[in-house]
């Protein structure tokens, strides 16, 4: 499949229904016949960021360490 086939007519979401962050519904739009309505929790679930507190803490600590090292270099 090429890029046009994958991105046309919601083909990507047909191939990967687990990537839908919410509930799919039909709209009256000519350009967007299918829409998705979801919540913040749906997006966090799909992106894998829910219940990932330790990963976020580790990233924050790494950023703090990088800032501290930059300050020492000044």
3D structure, described in words:
- The chain has 74 residues and is mainly alpha-helical.
- The chain has one domain.
- The protein is 53% helix and 11% strand.
- The chain has 4 helices and 2 strands, in the order ααββαα.
Overall tally of domains: 1
Distance between the termini: 52 Å
Mean pLDDT: 83
Individual helix count: 4
Over all CA atoms, what is the radius of gyration?
Answer: 20 Å
Strand content: 5-15%
Helix content: 40-55%
Provide the succession of SSEs. HHEEHH
Strand order of the largest sheet: 1-2
- Low-confidence segments: none
Number of strand elements: 2
**Backbone structural class:** mainly alpha
Q: Please give the largest β-sheet.
A: 2 strands, antiparallel
Shape: elongated
Give me a quick take on this structure.
The chain has one domain. The chain contains four helices and two strands.
Question: What distinguishing features does this structure have?
Answer:
2 strands; 74 residues; elongated; two-stranded antiparallel sheet; mainly alpha; 4 helices; single chain
Topology:
Elements: H1 3-7, H2 11-15, E1 23-26, E2 34-37, H3 40-47, H4 53-73
Antiparallel strand pairs: 1-2
């Amino acid at each position: 499949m090429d890029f046009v086939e994958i991105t046309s007519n919601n083909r990507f979401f047909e191939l990967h229904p687990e990537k839908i962050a919410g509930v799919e519904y039909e709209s009256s739009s000519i350009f967007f016949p299918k829409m998705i309505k979801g919540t913040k929790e749906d997006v966090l679930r799909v992106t894998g960021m829910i219940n990932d507190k330790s990963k976020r803490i580790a990233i924050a600590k790494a950023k703090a360490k990088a800032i501290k090292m930059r300050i020492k270099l000044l």
